[in-house]
């Protein structure tokens, strides 16, 4: 089965084509763009398909990062994945960015890890994973100091874009395995390929509301409509 994976949850716009037989990544394209995912995503997908030398119609599953991460970026990726899956007549599955960061890191290093993503506004998104890759707690949005306590209590190493932030505010030295901001798109594809039915349509996974909110005080007063 061929799986198309999409990631727009961070500053990266990425796509990957994965073949389940032999667990092979056939083509992968990743661009650090910051913003503008909606303008670049389809071109990145086309480039990944071209690198893999496959047609879009041969895709049997679509995987997408659902967050936590960029509020707008997540919506772009989820919408694209659901639209592609509908057109192709195949399942679409959502993969947590924290899972994509934490699972393979925990397994490859044979130890507990705290996956952390810089959430801005003095917080990080964090989730603990056991050495076997299984989640050891729920995903949360917390202060870096609290994340450091969580990692220390579990004897966990740090990984993800918020790792250095957490380590800097810790009261004791922390083991940082990686502080990269991007998600390995090949990992997203592999996790999506391993999903089993029943499949649920992917939905954005937010741990807090959007940073941008409507300004108050500019709404026009509405006059009551007289009854006829």
Tell me what the structure shows.
- The protein is an alpha/beta fold and 228 residues long.
- It starts with a strand and ends in a 34-residue tail after the last helix.
- The protein has helices at residues 37-52, 71-88, 97-109, 144-154, 163-168, 185-194, and strands at 2-7, 12-19, 24-32, 61-67, 92-96, 113-120, 123-129, 140-142, 157-159, 176-178.
- A hairpin with a 4-residue loop joins strand 2 and strand 3.
- The protein folds into 2 domains: 2-96 and 182-194, Nucleotidyltransferase, domain 5; 98-178, Nucleotidyltransferase, domain 5 (2-Layer Sandwich).
- The longest helix has 18 residues, at 71-88.
Keywords:
5-stranded mixed sheet; Nucleotidyltransferase, domain 5; single chain; 2 domains; alpha/beta; 228 residues; 26% strand
SSE blueprint and pairings:
Elements: E1 2-7, E2 12-19, E3 24-32, H1 37-52, E4 61-67, H2 71-88, E5 92-96, H3 97-109, E6 113-120, E7 123-129, E8 140-142, H4 144-154, E9 157-159, H5 163-168, E10 176-178, H6 185-194
Here the CATH topology of the largest domain equals Nucleotidyltransferase, domain 5
Architecture per CATH nomenclature, i.e. the level-2 architecture of the largest domain:
2-Layer Sandwich
Gap between N and C termini: 63 Å
Structural class: alpha/beta
Q: Beta-strand percentage?
A: 25-35%
Indicate the percent of residues in helices.
Answer: 25-40%
Q: Can you count the beta strands?
A: 10
Classified by CATH, the class of the largest domain is Alpha Beta
Count of alpha and pi helical runs = 6
In N-to-C order, the SSE pattern is EEEHEHEHEEEHEHEH
Strands ordered across the widest β-sheet: 3-2-1-4-5
CATH homology superfamily name of the largest domain: ATPase, nucleotide binding domain
**Coarse morphology:** globular
Contiguous uncertain segments of 5+ residues: 212-219
Largest sheet: 5 strands, mixed
C-alpha Rg (nearest Å): 20 Å
> How many domains is the backbone divided into?
2
Mean pLDDT metric? 91
């Amino acid at each position: 089965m061929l799986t198309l994976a999409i990631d727009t949850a961070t500053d990266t716009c990425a796509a990957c084509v994965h073949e389940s037989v032999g667990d092979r990544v056939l083509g992968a394209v990743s661009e650090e763009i910051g913003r503008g995912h909606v303008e670049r995503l389809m071109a990145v997908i086309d480039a990944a398909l071209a690198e893999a030398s496959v047609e879009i119609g041969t895709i049997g599953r679509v995987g997408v990062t659902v967050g936590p991460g960029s509020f707008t970026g997540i919506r772009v990726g989820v919408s694209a994945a659901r639209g592609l899956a509908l057109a192709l007549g195949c399942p679409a599955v959502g993969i947590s960015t924290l899972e994509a960061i934490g699972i393979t890191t925990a397994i490859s290093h044979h130890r507990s890890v705290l996956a952390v993503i810089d959430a801005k506004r003095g917080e990080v998104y964090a989730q603990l994973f056991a050495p076997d890759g299984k989640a050891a707690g729920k995903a949360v949005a917390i202060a870096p100091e609290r994340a450091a306590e969580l990692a220390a209590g579990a004897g966990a190493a740090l990984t993800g874009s918020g790792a250095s932030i957490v380590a800097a505010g810790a009261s004791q030295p922390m083991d940082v395995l990686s502080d990269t901001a991007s998600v390995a798109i090949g990992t997203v594809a592999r996790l999506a390929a391993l999903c089993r039915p029943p499949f649920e349509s992917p939905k954005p996974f937010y741990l807090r509301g959007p940073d941008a909110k409507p300004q108050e005080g500019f709404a026009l007063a509405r006059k009551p409509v007289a009854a006829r």
